[in-house]
Cystathionine beta-lyase
Amino acid sequence: MTFKPANQIQDLQYFGEFGGVNPSISDSSTYTFLSAKTMFDTFEGNADGCYLYSRHSSPSNLYLGEALAAMEGTETATVTSSGMGAITAVLMQLCGNGEHVVSSRTIYGGTYAFLKNFAPRLGINTSFVDITKLEVVEAAITKDTRVLYCESVSNPLLEVADIRGLAKIANKYSLKLVVDNTFSPLSISPKKLGADIVIHSLTKFINGSSDTVGGVICGTQDFIDELRNVNDGAAMLLGSTMDSLRSASILKNLRTLHIRMQQHSKNALFLAQKFEGLGLKPVYPGLAAHPSHELFKTMMNEAYGFGGMLTIDVGSLDKANTLMELMQERNLGYLAVSLGFYKTLFSAPGSSTSSEIPEDEQKEMGLSHGLIRFSIGLDADIERTFEMMKQCMMDLKILKAESIEG
Ligand SMILES: *Cc1c(COP(=O)(O)O)cnc(C)c1O
């Protein structure tokens, strides 16, 4: 039977303290005990259902974590105050001094900067590889490697990781396969394809309203327990705890994720096909021209499509900047980083979200100055959006009139 992630969320049932249809928000940082003995047991993690202190756990955070674990099909999950809070906790839990990570070279700029510049201070070194070449990935593994790290669909180049193939390699060398699934929630279920740990920045599609920063780590009960251990757990001790009010609001937004993803994907596919028709060479995993289009199809939960992210290269940073400014002026979206909003968001990653990556490395991985990354919005009339975007490109002579007639 195929995995139906949206059903997993829908089938959860929670009630509030007074029979409310939403779980009550626990608005306390600390909890009282009738017996001192229970307090000790709770601190040690041996008293189920008791709460001690909200950095350790809180009812609202557990509800959100359970819903996200259901979505990803993992035993459990723990939420964090940001996506980076999730990523850094996982990497520091799995690797120590002298150990090694093999990572995709096309990853979120913050993750790249952490692995490249910060983790070496802890004695953790990383080899960055082209994740689409399994033989290159395997060749980078050393006796000290502990983690294979990738994004299912990479930021910003939209490269697609072969999660089944990577899981085989991880198994062979007893590594943990850690997958950041921020770009493809519901569309791809990495755990079902063999990933050990699945991470999201909740800030993006999952929350979907660009009002909150958050993250989640989905994995086995044993791993999540390790992360939360009061003596040596990275999630516990590094302190990136989500606030209960925020987790309650993200849980409410999670319920419409399946509808939003369908609309993001439908709109992005429409624009990608139209841009392709204009000769613009968009990059979108839903296009047959994408090098990993067939691979994506073998991994996807079909109902949710190929996601809401696409890129086009308009040739130079100057052109990219003027186009983005004009599109914003005409209210086609916002010149802003981040993704998963109801409005289209666009940015030039080479000079923003991926600027942590040195220029020569950007060049090598194919990240050009004229690249614009779009997070396509929930536009009700995407045809109108397309016509207006086309007009912007014609006005700026990015598109020439003859290429449109032809
Ligand atoms: C935004 C993002 C992150 C970081 O998440 P924050 O919530 O900003 O800390 C990590 N990975 C990917 C793919 C992202 O897009």
